[in-house]
Design brief:
Elements lengths: L1 H23 L3 H13 L11 H18 L3 H6 L1 H25 L5 H10 L5 H8 L6 H31 L9 H19 L7 H20 L4 H16 L5 H35 L6 H31 L5 H16 L5 H8 L8 H18 L4 H7 L7 H22 L4 H17 L6 H24 L5 H18 L11
Subcellular location: Cell membrane
Keywords: Cell membrane, Ion transport, Membrane, Sodium, Sodium transport, Transmembrane, Transmembrane helix, Transport
InterPro entries: Cation/H_exchanger_CPA1, Cation/H_exchanger_TM
Length: 506
């Protein structure tokens, strides 16, 4: 009961902070993390244990699957150089830079210093998504950051595992070299087995439950086999998505998206709040004489982490594209590089990896404090200033979505018209004419489209009111009411402009 009461307290705190975040326009990961630290030092604050391995499986696995499922391999192919530069080279550079500082300034042994560098190197996928969701950032930047977040954790955790193994055992395990390809193979194989065994559950609530169960199970299996759990989940998600896009019904796909979005958001909220609560536990491990030297090292590590990413992104942009585009385009690319470089918030992977450091590991307390400083520092420093930065450098609003959306919609409508024109009956002709009207609106020739939308929404509003009146007068049963309400919901969603379909986080 005590655990349930603590969890309930956490839930109330999270809801209140999400409201605050929404009202002040601040990204919720930053608000939750800061508030978690403040609440953690209060006398009545609940105590929360934090199993690092459980945290990675519970919080990271579903977030990775949710992101990877929507990330098409063609996008990875289109931006692979940029993603490789961030997910591999940026992680390695950060690891080396932080390792050098920790070794020469903090006196940390080389392998332990490399472990510290690796665990603070990867930016957090959930934090980046939350920050970018409210900003008019170019779609290309979002795609690159999403692709980076699918791969950088794997790079960092592989280096971290190798460094810890070297420090504890005195030798590097050659089996770690095979951890990445073996993980990808494992993900693909499990995806094939999953899609075959769950074909009868695919369009049921059991299928949604199975997707969660297999995700967590795959993570645990990869950990037991000592391969990259991150890459296994990413490979699994991309493979399943490529198979199910034709076989899943629209009803279950919409339901599954809603369930996964809500579940991942809930886990992210809990994770960011819990990270703030960890501050008290970490400080409690330090002796009075260790506090200030450890704090100084942590601040230096934070500065190095931020500067290395910015310097690398700007240098990479200059070497790869500078000199080829026109001057105006060069300026736009530099602005894009600044945004990508500044979007380096760390999160749960960094914190969980730091807490998984063995008890007998040298400088364990200093490493954990440095990790906490990097997580909280980047969430506050970069998270709260990202929006002002975008406004300050005047990043051009990306208008490509609407144009690309209209072109794609026109293409699918033309396919429908072509199909119906081959059917020789009156109903097909009427339906084809309906699609021609929609096509005219899609390509911008129909200026009355907005008017028709508003009229349809007004009509649906009138039907909703009548349906409500019928229920209040007991003229219909509840099952009839809910069936018609669902029908009106679908009609309203279909008639609403895309801007009205977004669900806010707070």
């Amino acid at each position: 009961m005590h655990f349930f009461e603590s969890l309930l307290t956490l839930g109330f705190i999270a809801v209140a902070l999400l409201y605050v975040s929404s009202r002040v326009g601040a990204p919720y990961p930053s608000v939750l993390a800061i508030s978690g630290v403040a609440v953690a030092f209060l006398p009545w604050a609940p105590e929360f244990g934090f199993d690092p391995q459980l945290a990675l499986a519970l919080f990271v696995a579903p977030a990775l699957l949710d992101a990877a499922y929507d990330f098409h391999p063609k996008t990875l192919q289109r931006h692979w150089k940029d993603m490789l530069a961030l997910a591999v080279f940026a992680v390695v550079l950060t690891t080396v830079a932080v390792g050098a500082v920790a070794h020469w300034y903090g006196g940390v042994p080389v392998a332990a210093a490399i472990a510290l560098g690796a665990l603070v190197a990867p930016p957090d996928a959930a934090a980046a998504a939350a920050m970018l969701g409210r900003l008019p950032v170019p779609r290309r930047a979002v795609a690159i950051l999403q692709g980076e977040s699918l791969l950088n954790d794997a790079t960092a955790l592989l280096i971290f595992t190798a460094a810890v193994s070297t420090q504890m055992d005195g030798a590097f395990s050659i089996s770690l070299i095979m951890a990445a390809p073996a993980a990808i193979l494992l993900g693909v194989v499990i995806a094939a087995i999953y899609t075959f065994l769950t074909r009868d559950l695919r369009d049921s609530l059991g299928g949604v439950l199975a997707s969660f169960t297999v995700t967590f199970g795959l993570w645990v299996l990869a950990e037991r086999l000592h391969v990259s759990a991150v890459l296994a989940v990413v490979a699994f998600a991309m493979t399943v998505a490529s198979v199910l896009y034709r076989k899943q019904t629209p009803r279950i796909r919409i339901h599954a998206y809603a369930v996964w979005t809500t579940a991942v958001f809930f886990l992210n909220v809990v994770a960011f709040l819990l990270m703030g609560f960890l501050a008290r536990n970490i400080f409690a491990q330090l002796s009075p004489g260790e506090v200030w030297p450890s704090v100084r090292l942590a601040v230096i590590v934070l500065v190095v982490v931020v500067l290395v990413r910015i310097a690398w992104v700007l240098a990479y942009t200059w070497f790869r594209r500078y000199g080829r585009p026109a001057a105006g385009e060069r300026l736009a690319q530099t602005k894009l590089a600044v945004v990508v470089g500044w979007c380096g918030m760390r999160g749960l992977v960094t914190m969980a990896a730091a807490l998984s450091v063995p008890l007998e590991f040298p400088h364990r307390e200093q490493i954990q404090l440095a990790a906490l400083a990097v997580v909280l520092g980047t969430l506050v420093l970069q998270g709260l200033t990202l929006s002002p930065l975008v406004k300050l450098i005047r990043v051009a609003k990306d208008k490509s979505f609407e144009a690309e959306f209209s072109d794609a919609r026109a293409s699918v409508l033309e396919a429908a018209i072509t199909r119906l024109e081959h059917t020789d009956n009156e109903d097909a002709a009427k339906m084809a004419q309906k699609y021609r009207t929609e096509l005219a609106a899609a390509i911008g020739r129909d200026e009355q489209d907005a008017t028709r939308r508003e009229l349809k929404l007004a009509a649906i509003g009138a039907m909703r009111q009548k349906l409500h009146d019928l229920r209040e007068k007991a003229a219909i049963e509840d099952d009839i009411y809910h069936a018609l309400e669902e029908e009106l919901d679908w009609d309203e969603l279909a008639a609403s402009p895309r801007g009205r379909l977004a669900i806010n986080e707070g």
